[in-house]
Fold this sequence. Notes:
By secondary structure, this protein is mainly alpha-helical. The protein is built from 5 helices and no strands.
Amino acid sequence: MTRVKKGVNALKSRKNILRKVKGYRFGRSTKERMANEAIFHAGTYSFAHRKDKKGDFRRLWNVRISAILKENGLSYSKFIPALKKKQIALDRKILALLAEKHPETFKKVLEAVK
Length: 114
C-alpha cells in the first residue's frame, strides 16, 4: 500500500478548530485538544440556552403586560383567562408589544375584555 502523509489535512483541521475558538481565554484559544473541548462545551451550552431564551422572553412579556394592567386596575391572572373567554387570539408577545409601543390600542383590547 502507498504511504499517505496527512500533514495538509491535519493542518487544515487544526486551523478550522482554532478559528472557531478565536477570542477564548488561556490555552483554549491556542491548544488543539483544549480548543476541541471548548467547542464541544460551547455547543452544548448554546443549545441549552437557545431553549432557555424562549422562557426568558415569555417572562419578560408577562412582566410588561402585568405592568400596564396594574395601571388600569386589572391583574395579569384575571386578564389572560378573560382574553381566552372572549376568544381574542393575541399571544403574549403581541400583547407586550402593544402595551409598550401602542398603549391606546392595548386599552381597546382591555375594553373588549372588560
